[in-house]
TrEMBL record:
<protein>
    <submittedName>
        <fullName>Glycosyltransferase family 2 protein</fullName>
    </submittedName>
</protein>
<feature type="transmembrane region" description="Helical">
    <location>
        <begin position="258"/>
        <end position="283"/>
    </location>
</feature>
<keyword id="KW-1133">Transmembrane helix</keyword>
<comment type="similarity">
    <text>Belongs to the glycosyltransferase 2 family. GtrB subfamily.</text>
</comment>
<feature type="transmembrane region" description="Helical">
    <location>
        <begin position="231"/>
        <end position="252"/>
    </location>
</feature>
<dbReference type="GO" id="GO:0016757">
    <property type="term" value="F:glycosyltransferase activity"/>
</dbReference>
<keyword id="KW-0472">Membrane</keyword>
<dbReference type="InterPro" id="IPR050256">
    <property type="entry name" value="Glycosyltransferase_2"/>
</dbReference>
<keyword id="KW-1003">Cell membrane</keyword>
<keyword id="KW-0808">Transferase</keyword>
<keyword id="KW-0812">Transmembrane</keyword>
<feature type="domain" description="Glycosyltransferase 2-like">
    <location>
        <begin position="6"/>
        <end position="166"/>
    </location>
</feature>
<keyword id="KW-0328">Glycosyltransferase</keyword>
<dbReference type="InterPro" id="IPR001173">
    <property type="entry name" value="Glyco_trans_2-like"/>
</dbReference>
<dbReference type="GO" id="GO:0005886">
    <property type="term" value="C:plasma membrane"/>
</dbReference>
<dbReference type="Pfam" id="PF00535">
    <property type="entry name" value="Glycos_transf_2"/>
</dbReference>
<dbReference type="InterPro" id="IPR029044">
    <property type="entry name" value="Nucleotide-diphossugar_trans"/>
</dbReference>
Length: 304
């Protein structure tokens, strides 16, 4: 029988885990006679009881596999590890907080049978998320789409099912700054959405504070687009033209000198720093690649 691994990144999810695992285990019944189901929980350095809960379940059920990281390496690295260890015909990725309905993985599988190697969950509604999160996510996906040359579906997270072919191609991509929801479409395999309403987190708080959201957004933009560098050229052209205008005014008409100097110093300073910052983003990424550190470190594993 063909197989599926369901990969679940876990960071401080003790409030959700029992319920999540129960819901995920129900999938075995749904896939009966079609796919044999295993689970790869990647504990991303949780400081709460997540590791103990996972261990208890893994002891009782060999299809539950656990990877414990040595520390918190981040959501994208946890998914990467799950995909590295997955050996099944299909791999699915789902969050641990039940915001993504586990049952949809079955629909993704059915959709894949129509000839798709990637089936991703596209969010229609986001219940009970803050207005800021909804607005920033809405804006971010659209900015990203306009900046990048590959087709990145909007309103789509990492909740998806991929075939072994896609996984093997993806696993060859070892870059350090990972934006998985764009790396998967980069592989070029045929993809299709299934739609769902994103519900509330089952319990606990988001593990994505603003700092992690920004890091992910920066990785999305700077790892997939050189357009920010083009922006530097545009800004320099704008500055040059502005300086000509100022020169013209200066010649024909006496400006308030102090105001002009002050304004120009600040504007030029800000644009210079922006340009440096943009270049720094790329240079920092080159530095990270050359150091060639591992993407994550596994402390131990269970049933693997
Ligand atoms: N997560 C993780 N490492 C982190 C942060 C989050 O493995 O450093 C996991 C988390 O346990 C959850 C998923 O990534 O399974 C998505 O996180 P969360 O639900 O907090 O993000 P949100 O849905 O609020 O964007
Ligand atoms: Mg969530």
């Amino acid at each position: 029988m063909q197989t599926i691994d369901i990969i679940v990144p876990v960071y401080n999810e003790e409030a959700c885990l029992n319920q999540t695992i129960e819901r995920l285990l129900n999938l075995k019944e749904k896939f009966k006679g079609k796919l044999s189901v295993s689970y790869i929980f990647v504990n991303d350095g949780s400081k709460d009881n997540s590791a103990q809960i996972l261990e208890e379940f893994a002891k009782k059920d060999k299809s539950i596999k656990v990877i414990n990281f040595s520390r918190n390496f981040g959501h994208q690295m946890a998914i990467t590890a799950g995909l590295d260890y997955s050996k099944a015909d299909y791999s699915a990725i789902i969050d641990a907080d039940l915001q993504d309905p586990p049952e949809l993985i079955y629909d993704m599988y059915e959709k894949s049978l129509e000839g798709f190697d990637i089936v991703y969950g596209k969010r229609l509604k986001r219940e009970s998320e803050t207005a800021f999160k909804k607005l920033s996510a809405w804006g971010f996906y659209r900015v990203l789409k306009s900046l990048c040359n590959i087709e990145i579906p909007t309103d789509t997270g990492d909740f998806r099912l991929i075939t072994k072919n896609v996984r093997e191609a993806f696993n060859k991509m070892r870059e350090k700054h990972r934006f998985i929801r764009a790396m998967v479409p980069w592989t070029g395999f045929k993809s299709a959405p299934v739609y769902f309403n994103r519900s509330e987190r089952f319990a606990g708080e988001t593990k994505y504070p603003l700092s992690k959201m920004l890091k992910l957004a920066f990785d999305g933009i700077f790892s997939f687009s050189f357009k920010p560098v083009d922006l530097i050229f545009v800004l320099s052209a704008v500055l040059f033209l502005t300086s000509l205008v100022i020169l013209g005014f200066g010649i024909f008409d006496g400006f308030e000198e102090e105001f002009l100097i002050c304004f120009t110093v600040f504007l030029v300073g800000a644009i210079n720093l922006l340009a440096l910052g943009i270049l720094g983003q790329y240079i920092g990424r080159i530095y990270d690649e050359t150091r060639n550190r591992p993407l994550y470190i596994v402390k131990n594993s269970i049933n693997l």
